[in-house]
Amino acid sequence: MSTPATAEEKTKKKNDVKARGLLLMTLPNEHQLTFSQYPDAKSMFAAIETIFGGNATTKKTQKTLLKQQYENFNATSVESLDSIINRLQMIVSRLAILGVIIAQEDLSLNFLSSLPLEWNTHVVVWMNKPEIETMSIDDLYNNFKIVEQKIKKTVGTSGGIQNLAFMTAPSSSSTNDANTAYPQVSAISPSFNAAS
Questions:
Q1: In a shared domain, residues 88 and 142
Q2: DSSP 67-84
Q3: Rounded to an integer, what distance in angstroms lies between the CA atom of residue 176 and that of residue 144?
Q4: Is residue 70 situated within a structural domain?
Q5: Domain contains 154
Q6: Which Pfam families match (predicted)?
Q7: CA 184 → CA 88, 96, 179, 195, distances in Å?
Q8: CB 151 within 8 A of CB 119
Q9: What are the E-state strand segments in the chain?
Q10: Total domain count for the chain?
Q11: Can you tell me the mean pLDDT for 43-71?
Q12: How sure is the predictor about 191, in pLDDT bands with cuts at 50, 70 and 90?
């Protein structure tokens, strides 16, 4: 005859069932049957970590690659501000999981320096503001979101200049020669080089 479970034991069992369910939901369908055999969330998590977590060498390689992605992060002219911030935050989140924490100021400056050339006027203004050192990336994003449509309209209207410059450039073996032949066009239309 078993003894009746205490309220604390019932709560533990309920929490364990929830944890197991959450762990199973995070797994791809083809792995759910394999991991559902574990009797509790703790042993299931240990098995998941062993199989998917990788060893120390793998984690070191992941960390190095993510740091390079972060340091070389750049946005394109056709990318929306939402897409830019999402890609950057995904890299930062993955680094945090591996134990690398990016300072707020560094993150803000990296975000600003990664923006396409058409954002330069706003980037210079924000880089010179004293609050950039303490401003969160979310606040910075919100400020830039306000002017995104104006910048996208400016890029759209400068497309005619870019096309005209391309069509009137002298025949050459490289589009870089066109940029040196018409440096004023390259200065006016920052995405000219990106289109080549």
A1: yes
A2: HHHHHT----TTS-HHHH
A3: 31
A4: yes
A5: no
A6: Retrotran_gag_2 (PF14223)
A7: 32, 44, 8, 17
A8: yes
A9: none
A10: 3
A11: 86
A12: very low
- What average pLDDT does this structure show over 100-108? 91
> What pLDDT shows up at residue 166?
38
* Structural domain span for residue 178: 159-195
Instruction: Give residue 61's identity as a one-letter amino acid code.
Output: T
Average pLDDT over residues 117-138: 89
Please tell me the predicted confidence (pLDDT) of residue 114.
94
Mean pLDDT (the chain, rounded): 77
Residue 122 sits in the same domain as residue 175 = no
Task: State the pTM of this model.
Answer: 0.54
Residue 2 lies in a domain: no
Other Cβ atoms closer than 10 A to 43? 13
Computed on alpha carbons and rounded to an integer, the radius of gyration of the chain in Å comes to 26
72 and 45, same structural domain?
A: no
Q: Could you tell me if 64 and 130 lie in one domain?
A: yes
Instruction: Please enumerate in sequence order all residues whose Cβ is within 8 A of that of 125, keeping only pairs 6 or more positions apart, or say none.
Output: none
Written as six digits, the tokens of 12 are 């533990």
